[in-house]
Amino acid sequence: MITDVRRHTTSKVEFCSSDGFQQEYELGKLAMSIGSQTEADIAFPTLQFEHAELTHEQGEWVIRKRNPEATIQFRGY
Question: Are strands 11-16 and 42-43 parallel, antiparallel or unpaired?
Answer without folding.
Answer: unpaired
